Amino acid sequence: MTKLEEHPTVAALKRRFPAAAAAAPLSTAWLRQLCLDCGADDVGFVSLDRPDIAGERASILKAFPATKSLIALVCRMNREPIRSPARSVANLEFHHTGDHVNDVAREIVRRLEAEGIRAMNAAVGFPMEMNGFPGKIWVVSHKPVAVAAGLGQMGIHRNVIHPKFGNFILLGTILLAAELDSESRPIDYNPCLSCKLCVAACPVGAIKPDGRFDPSACLTHNYREFMNGFTDWVEQIADSPSALAYRHRVTDQETASMWQSLSFGANYKAAYCLAVCPAGEEVIAPFLADRAEFVAEMVKPLQQKEETIYVVPHSDAEEYVARKFPHKTAKRVNGVRPSSIAGFLSGMHIVFQAGQAKGLSAVYHFTFTGAETMQATITIRDETLTVQSGLIGSPNCSVTADAATWLGFLRKEKSIVWAILRRKVRVKGRLSLLNAFGKCFPSTTALTRYW
Ligand code: B12
Ligand code: SF4
Hints:
By secondary structure, the chain is α+β, with helices and mostly antiparallel strands.
């Protein structure tokens, strides 16, 4: 019998793909040209071992265990459509550039496969791994990869700003089962100008002047027609006893908008942070020429736009809209809710409302029993949140809860009063402290509704 290496198919393969057969590092000069030929506007390369992308390793290897290195891609968006107050125009640009990044990445993978090089492209955005929602549902975080690959730095608004194209870009990542002959390094300055126009333009105050970010404020409004916004809409239908009752909850415009998202791809409600950013060599000229004029033309129309803004009741965003944008209509909706105790603990930083934590300084011990046994120490001090596993230090308030009951309460399926009366939840310490804790997480706890 012929040995496998001498088999005619294997011999032919070795002749056709000498680089793959020799497992030689791939030339990044060759790869770069391939990516540009496929339609990328810029590209960079990173080895999977790089410490600056260590947080990405596990999920990348889970999706494609052979990964050794990454290609980071940038595709440009047309600026004026993104800046327009007409969101249909901006969404068309987001959708088309998103599809373009996916097409470019797919074509690169196709050509690599034809050369005998194994590669996989991760989605630009959706589809994602929804069974993990509301946790990390994406296979790879494109932003840290792009930063490590020298394609830009994150601005105050937490989007990557390319030194030339500014933030008018979408990102893609290709996972490669090959070593590279060289790597890119991060750029040594941040193109962000700290002008804070993104802070001023965001309708929900998600971007704080010090660079902190309130993901749940953005998720609740901007993503109203995605994931949990869609779930909430379905529940509005389910809870409505009649068409007339439904109409009192959801306007005709909102129903039509949901139909539009379902038919043509889910639409973002804002993205004003990207729209107003003047950073980047090719973008900055009008801002430098006349800052006041730039603000009047790019920022004011978005600030002045009369529109519905989706907020969680008692959230920082609700207060922000009332204070900064009284001409916009804040509409109360349900926020994101956890599906497990582990998810509740890991997702706390997403839903934490720093503004509601003003004046609170306390350590909480949580002990969960039953279906999920877990202990955690949660510290809220100076408007910041720390979540640690285990019981650490001496608490001001301790909660021992049956995991399923606590989850039911977070998901607004069970009453906390009922749970306490049946000793499914036991609290040691002042109840006012637990109430203050609940106010910091209005999206999931709704404690204020019960106490
Ligand atoms: C999750 C996500 C979001 C979340 C969180 C945003 C964030 N800052 O991470 C939400 C829903 C709020 C969001 C909004 C938007 N996003 Co987005 N989003 C992503 C996604 C899927 C992962 C982001 C990521 O890597 N985060 C991890 C680290 C790197 O981000 P971070 O800022 O340091 O940390 C925050 C998050 O980790 C967050 N977080 C952690 N776990 C979870 C879980 C959930 C459910 C949520 C909501 C947040 C969250 O908390 C941290 C604190 O701020 C990527 C696509 C991808 N696969 O990479 C696109 C991506 C980052 N988004 C993008 C865009 C364009 C937007 C929007 C403009 C959408 C729009 N068109 O309106 C807004 C801008 C909001 C903003 N100023 O950041 C682009 C950014 C392009 C660029 N130039 O950098 C990306 C890269 C998509 C792409 N392929 O181009 N997005
Ligand atoms: S708008 Fe200004 S502060 Fe915000 S990211 Fe762009 S340059 Fe930085």
